[in-house]
Amino acid sequence: MPRVVALYRHPIKGFTPERLDELVVQPDGRIAGDRVLAFRFGNAVEPEDRDGLDYWPKSKGLALESFPTLAALQVSYDHDARRVRVAYDDELLIEVVLDAEGRAELTEIMTAFVLDSPEWKLLQREGRLPLVLVGDGESSRFQDRSRGFVSVHSHASIDALSDALGQQVDDRRFRSNVVIDGVDAWDELSWQGEVRIGDVRFSAEGPIVRCLATHANPDTGIRDAKVLTTLTRGVGLPEPTLGHLLLLDGVNGAVGDAAGLGGVIRVGDEVTFG
C-alpha cells in the first residue's frame, strides 16, 4: 500500500522547505504555513491578474530558478507565533517575529545575503531593489499558480531519475509538499480522478513541469545536476515532469474559497488513487 514518507512546506516562497510530521490542508486547498511570505522586487509588489485570481510570477522576486544560492539557507517557521528563523551553514542568520521591525530586519539580512552571493548582479537590474517582503504570514498566497494545489511525488521516481543522472538527488529539489513510497517510478504522472491521502480527498489535476530550480543542490545552493534534460533525453519523458498537482476535493480554485473540507495529512498515511 502506498504511504506518505515525508512532508514539506515552504514558509518563504523560493527558499528551502522545512520537513514536518504533519501538514494542515486548509479549506481553500492550500497548506497552512506554505508560501505565506515572499521577497518581491521593488517594481513587483502587487499581484498580477490571471483569470480573475492573484498571480505572483516567480520571475519577479527571489526564487531558486534565478537565485540558486537561496537553497543553502535553512528556514523554519512558527506559524502560531509568526516567528521566522533562517540559518546558513548551520549558523543562525536571523530569528524574528513578523512585526514591522522584524520584517525590516529580515529584509535587510536577506538583501545582504543575496548581494554577497554569486547572483548579486541580478539584483542590480533596474527596478529590483529594494526588495520588499510581502505576505501576512498566515495566508498561503505565493504558489507558482493562481489556484491552491498540493504537490506530490514518489521516491521511486526520484530513484529512477538518480539512476539516469548517475548521482543521488534529494527530494527537496522538487519542492513538493508530499513524498510517497510504494508505487512504481513515474506512476504518479498518470493519475486521474480521486486521490486520497489519509482522510483528505483530492482530485488529480496533472503532472508538474519542472524548472531550473531543480538544478540547485538543496544543501550547497550550487547547480550540480542537469535535471531538466535528464528527464527528457535521459528518462524519455515528453516534458521535464516529475510529480503531480492535487486539488482539494470541492474547491474551485478561488483564493479563500472554503468549499473543500480540508484536514490533516501525516507521515505514514495511506495513499489511494485511480
What does the model show?
This protein has 274 residues and is an alpha+beta fold. It folds into 2 domains: 3-11 and 145-273, no CATH class; 38-134, no CATH class. The chain contains 3 helices and 17 strands. It has helices spanning 100-115, 155-165, 227-234; strands at residues 3-9, 18-20, 22-25, 38-40, 48-50, 53-55, 73-78, 83-88, 91-97, 132-134, 150-154, 178-181, 194-197, 200-209, 241-248, 263-266, 271-273. The strands form 5 sheets. An 8-stranded mixed sheet has the order 2-1-12-11-15-14-13-17. A 3-stranded antiparallel sheet has the order 7-8-9, with helices on one face. The radius of gyration is 18 Å and the shape is globular. It starts with a strand and ends with a strand. Residues 253-258 have low confidence and may be disordered.
